[in-house]
Design brief:
Blueprint (H helix, E strand, L loop, with lengths): L1 H16 L12 E5 L11 H9 L4 E8 L5 E3 L20 H4 L14 H8 L6 E6 L9 H15 L7 E6 L2 H10 L5 E8 L2 H10 L3 E5 L5 H9 L3 E5 L4 H10 L3 E4 L2 H14 L10
Parallel strand pairs: 1-2, 1-9, 2-4, 4-5, 5-6, 6-7, 7-8, 8-9
Antiparallel strand pairs: 2-3
Helix pairs in contact: 5-6
Length: about 280
């Protein structure tokens, strides 16, 4: 019985989440690489995105900021201190200054958005979440926020066939600005809370089609109700295989993980080794 139930679970996983990363950009069960695969590569580097892509991933997430002189650059943290051989905020540096900056671990160059988009330009079927890191209102007052949103929206419109580039944020301000620019823009509201009626209500008020919710504390019923309301639901964080199991059980539309290659490798081995149960009724 236990083996049969395990095989049944494997079959469900395969049906819902396919081979991790190999699904079409909008197919239910997409597994995508957080910061390019933050626990498997040096995060938010071109090497990370290239490495994940070459292993079969077709879904990715990254973080967008704007330099002092108005260029879009990729960095998660508020400062360069943790990840690069420099200190301070990218918002206080020029693009020229940042082109001299490299990562601490492997000496990778600072990644600019235009370079990442150029890498994906000839690769159809990509799902790419571009998180708008504008929560610091001192760094992004209204005028600068508007400039940032116009530039990012314009850049994200240039995508290969069959790809979906989604602008995301915890901050409601850029979501409102982009929605005003483009009624059809793909937007996602990120929440630091579990999926709930409150998060759904916020998303609907903003006119966004997607929500990203913390999986701990989220119920399957809440995910289903959100989907019934017309929203696609992303589950996060994804730091372990157990998180992946949880995503499958909750029935989320997409799963954001730091270990996309580990998950895809595990799934491929499991699907190859799983025995096919004989057709009979359980006693």
């Amino acid at each position: 019985m236990r083996i049969q139930r395990w095989v049944a679970f494997v079959a469900v996983v395969g049906e819902m989440f396919g081979v991790a990363g190999a699904l079409a950009a909008q197919e239910k069960g997409l597994v995508f690489a957080h910061r390019g695969g933050a626990h498997e590569f040096e995060e938010n580097t071109l090497a990370a995105f290239r490495g994940s892509y070459e292993k079969g991933l077709r879904g990715f997430e990254t973080d967008i900021r704007m330099t002092q002189d108005g260029e879009l650059v990729i960095l998660h943290d508020d400062t360069l201190n943790r990840t690069h051989n420099a200190t301070g905020a990218v918002e206080q540096k020029t693009a020229a200054e940042l082109r001299t900056v490299v990562t601490k671990k492997n000496g990778e160059p600072m990644l600019f958005l235009k370079d990442l988009l150029a890498y994906f330009a000839d690769k159809p079927g990509i799902y790419l979440e571009l998180e708008m890191k504008t929560g610091n209102k001192a760094q992004y007052p209204e005028e600068r926020l508007n400039e940032y949103c116009r530039k990012l929206h314009k850049a994200a419109r240039q995508k290969p066939q069959g790809s979906f580039y989604v602008l995301t944020s915890f901050d409601e301000r850029p979501l409102k600005v982009v929605r005003a620019l483009d009624a059809n823009a793909e937007l996602l509201l990120i929440s630091g809370d579990p999926c709930s009626e409150k998060v759904v209500a916020r998303a609907r008020a903003l006119g966004v089609q997607r929500i990203g919710c913390v999986m701990d504390g989220t119920s399957r019923a809440a995910v289903r109700e959100s989907q019934k309301a017309g929203l696609r639901v992303t589950g996060w964080p994804g730091r372990s295989l157990q998180d992946y199991y949880l995503a499958v059980g909750l029935g989320v539309d997409a799963f954001c993980t730091d270990i996309p290659i580990a998950i895809s490798t595990w799934k491929a081995r499991l699907e190859q080794s799983a025995p096919v149960p004989a057709a009979h009724e359980d006693k």
